[in-house]
Amino acid sequence: MTERPLLEISDLAITFPGGRGQWPWQRQSDVKAVQGASLSIGRGETLGLVGESGSGKTTIGRAVLQFIQPASGTIRFGDFDVTGFGRSVPAAYRRAVQVVFQDPVGSLNPSMTVGQIVGEPLQLHFGLDRAARQARAAELLISVGLEAHHLERYPYEFSGGQRQRIAVARALATEPELLVLDEPVSALDVSTQSQVINLLERLQDETGAAYLFIAHDLAVVRHISDRIAVMYHSRIVETGEADRLCEEPRHPYTELLLASIPDPDPKLQPLKSRRRRELTVGGELGASGSAPTESCPFAERCPHALDICSTQFPDPFPLDDGGWVRCHLHTSGPTLAGQPITQLAVV
Ligand SMILES: Nc1ncnc2c1ncn2[C@@H]1O[C@H](COP(=O)(O)OP(=O)(O)O)[C@@H](O)[C@H]1O
Ligand SMILES: [Mg+2]
To answer: What are the backbone dihedrals phi and psi of residue 149, each rounded to the nearest 5 degrees, phi first?
Structure first.
């Protein structure tokens, strides 16, 4: 129970320098892509990271992969102090943390055969010779639902879903402890999405790998995740068990994301569309404004906003399921503290 998490991110901040403005003397301000982000993932666990486009999800994933350096905060993975790596990332870390991107066309080298693509990490990390690589690559292809004879083929000969299976096979080749899956099914049609999600769930049972599953679609994230972290405009605003978070959301933005999922039950539709109308007042879903950093980033769009919300972003308020919410409705109102947001007066 008290086992240390596999991945622990504390108070992470990531800033991109502003580029040139429209005129030579103008300089755009720095982009605070991630601020004060803390999260953890246990061994074999799936953490879903959800939020609209531009909220900072990919940036967190890239920091974990050490493609970018954070401005402040720490990332710890097993015994590794990831933020202390500097320019030299240990091969053992590269082996242990692998990635699958959204776009399997862009992420698979079109001039390499599938055998070379899946075989490359086997040579790099395990030093396998050609015959051993081919044999292991064939096993990996079969484990992702493809066939051994596909080794000789090129990426363009496959469908989008099949290409994503190849990307998963390559990522699993190093026997990683953590897979960063950045919108791995977002480019696929709905039926292919569920096949790939089911595959990822089976592979997790077989390999014990933990997943950081990044997506903008809460319905997809809920299906695969044990726990979920919700991001809005560079901030994580709520975390918790997947079922609790989706059934009893505590942050108004989590509720907005839920209200945006089409519900197959028509009886619930009027309620949902009313909530959606109320919650989208002040901004379109998908638009990221430029709220000042001290305020709650969601304050301008929030139907429950209090005066304090525009001047202060609250510390995390702990919840029963081990998660937390950063919302003044819970920290400032004793009668509301810890209540599901759905029980607040939304009408
Ligand atoms: N390399 C970069 N240079 C400048 N700004 C960036 C860069 N990468 C991301 N950003 C900005 O950081 C913010 C978060 O982006 P991102 O992490 O890609 O969001 P998400 O994955 O949630 O869509 C956005 O405002 C985006 O424009
Ligand atoms: Mg992204």
So the answer is: -70, -10
6-10, 65-69, 140-144, 271-275: the lowest-pLDDT one = 271-275
Nearest ligand to the C-alpha atom of residue 102: 2
Q: In the predicted model, is pLDDT for residue 269 greater than 80? A: no
Single out the residue of 323, 281, 287 nearest to residue 300, CA to CA: 281
This prediction's pTM: 0.89
CATH architecture observed for domain 1-18+29-225: 3-Layer(aba) Sandwich (3.40)
Question: Looking at the chain, how many residues does it have?
Answer: 347
> Quick one: residue 206, left, alpha or beta (phi over 0 = left, psi -120 to 50 = alpha)?
alpha
Domain boundaries defined on the chain: 1-18+29-225, 249-347
Position 287 pLDDT exceeds 50: no
pLDDT the model gives residue 1: 52
Question: Which pLDDT band holds residue 106 (cuts at 50, 70, 90)?
Answer: confident
Cα-based angle 176, 160, 116 (whole degrees, multiple of 5): 50
Residue 49 pLDDT: 98
Q: At residue 224, what are phi and psi to the nearest 5 degrees?
A: -100, -20
Ligand 1, residue 19: give the atom nearest the CA: 4
Name residue, tokens 């990635």.
99
Helical residues (DSSP H) of the chain, grouped into ranges: 57-64, 91-96, 104-107, 114-126, 130-143, 160-172, 190-207, 218-224, 242-247, 252-259, 269-280, 328-331
Q: Which of 49, 58, 217, 236 to mutate to test the pocket of ligand 1 (most atoms within 8 A of CB)?
A: 58
| Three-class secondary structure of residue 88 per DSSP | coil
